[in-house]
Amino acid sequence: MSEQFAARVRADFPVFERQIGGRSIAFFDGPGGSQVPRQVGDAMRDYLLMHNANTHGFFATSEETDAVITRARENMAAFLNAPSPREVVFGANMTTLTFHLSRSLGREWGPGDEVIVSQLDHQANVAPWRRMAEDRGMTVHVVPFSAETYTLDLDALERALSPRTRLVAIGAASNAIGTVNDVARAARLARQAGALSFVDAVHYAPHRLPDVQAIGSDFLACSAYKFFGPHMGILWGRAEHLERLTPYKVPPASNASPERWETGTLNHEGMAGTAAAVEWIASLDSHGPGNNLRASLERAFRAIHAHETELFAALYAGLTGIPGVRVHGSPADGMRTPTAGFVIDGVSPDEAARRLGAEGVFVWNGDFYATTVCDVLGLSDCGGLIRAGIAPYTTADDVERLVTGVRALARG
Ligand SMILES: Cc1ncc(COP(=O)(O)O)c(C=O)c1O
C-alpha cells in the first residue's frame, strides 16, 4: 500500500531520474526543504514565460497576474482553513514575515509588557520576538523543553502568563526532533490571559494539514518550500489584526489588507508555484479531483500521514536497534512528525552526513537553527544532530539504505 503510494508520488518528481552510484537518491532532507513535483515547476515556468507582468494593469498579462495572486490566496486559505483569502499574506520566507509582523506588533507595546517564546522553537520564532522586546523594553519569558520527554512544558507556559503578556510564540512542530505541540491549548491559554498567539507551522505543514480555526491562534506562518512548493513564506493573520495594525510600508502602496503587508513587488512565479503545490497535494486524494479543495486536502493528508507513519515506524525501529545510535525524540507512535534527530557514538553529524551523502542518502546535520534544542540536549558542542525526514516520496528501500548506512558508520 505504502509502496504503491510512493510510486504514484515519485512519478511526479523528475529529480528521481538523477542517480548517484547507479541508484536514485534517497532524500531525507525534507525538513530543510522538500523536492518539487513537475506540476509546480511547470506552473512557475508558465507564469514567467507566458503571463509575466506587474499587477493591476489594463492588459492581459497583468490581469492574468492578478488572477494568479487571487488563486494563490484562495488555495492557501483552503490549505490553512482560513475564513478568508484576505487573511493570507505572502512574503520572502517565514523568517522575514515574522520580523515584519514583530515590528508592527511592537509599536503597540512597551516597557513592562511581556512576550513568551520556547526552547523547542526554531530561531525564526524566537529572534524576531527577542529583537522586538529589546526595541520596546519588554520582558521575554522562555518555556522550557524537557530532554527526557522531548516535549514542551505547557504547564510552565500557563504559569508564565500574566496580565502583561502580549504575545505567546510557539511552534506547531519541532524541525529538529519532530515533537508536535498542543498549539490549540497554547492559543487558548494565551487568549484567556488576554494575549495574542503566533504559531510557527513551518515543520508541521508538510505532515499535517493546518487548521487555523481549530488551533484558534491569532497568527500562523509556514513556508511553501517545505511542502513541495517554491521558496516563499506565508503568513495567516486574523482579519481584525491585519486591518488594525500598522505595517511598515511605502505610502503609495495599497492600504487594503492583506496587500498592505506585502512590501514591494511580490514573487509572482512563487505564488503560481505555491498555488500549484497545494493543488498537487490535493491530487493525492484517492477520490480524484473534486470541487472542494479543503476536503481533497484532508483526504490527501490522511494518505500522506498513513504512508509517513508506516515508514517512520520502520526508520525508528531500525535506528534504535543499532548499538551506539541514539534517537532524540518521542517514540514512533508519539505526538510527532516523521523526522528523526539522532546521533552516532564516535561519528560527528557532519561526517555522517558527508559519508551518507556520498552514497546518495541525503540527510542534514547541525542544529537547524533550533539552537536551544541542541543546547538542552547537550549537543551544541559536538555538532548537533543528524536529521532524517520521511516524505510522501520516501520508500521502504530508502529507509533500508539509511539504516544500513548508519549501521556501517556505527560499526566504525
Ligand atoms: C520550524 C521552522 N520554523 C521556521 C523556519 C524558517 O523558515 P524560512 O526559511 O521560511 O524563513 C524553518 C526553516 O527551516 C523551520 O524549520
Textual characterization of the structure:
With 412 residues, the chain is α/β, with parallel strands linked by helices. The protein folds into two domains: 155 residues, Aspartate Aminotransferase, domain 1 (Alpha-Beta Complex), CATH 3.90.1150.10; 240 residues, Aspartate Aminotransferase, domain 2. The chain is 41% helix and 15% strand. The protein has 14 helices and 15 strands. The strands form four sheets. A seven-stranded mixed β-sheet has the order 4-10-9-8-7-5-6, with helices on both faces. The radius of gyration is 21 Å and the shape is globular. The structure holds pyridoxal-5'-phosphate. The site of pyridoxal-5'-phosphate has 13 residues, from helix 4.
Key terms:
single chain, 412 residues, alpha/beta, Aspartate Aminotransferase, domain 1, Aspartate Aminotransferase, domain 2, 2 domains, 4-stranded antiparallel sheet, 14 helices, 15% strand, binds pyridoxal-5'-phosphate
How do the SSEs run, as a string of H and E? HEEEHHEHEHEHEHEHEEHHHEEHEEHEH
Overall morphology: globular
What is the CATH architecture annotation of the largest domain? 3-Layer(aba) Sandwich
Unreliable spans: none
Tell me, rounded to a whole number, the average pLDDT: 97
Helix content: 40-55%
CATH class term of the largest domain: Alpha Beta
Distance between the termini: 36 Å
Strand fraction equals 15-25%
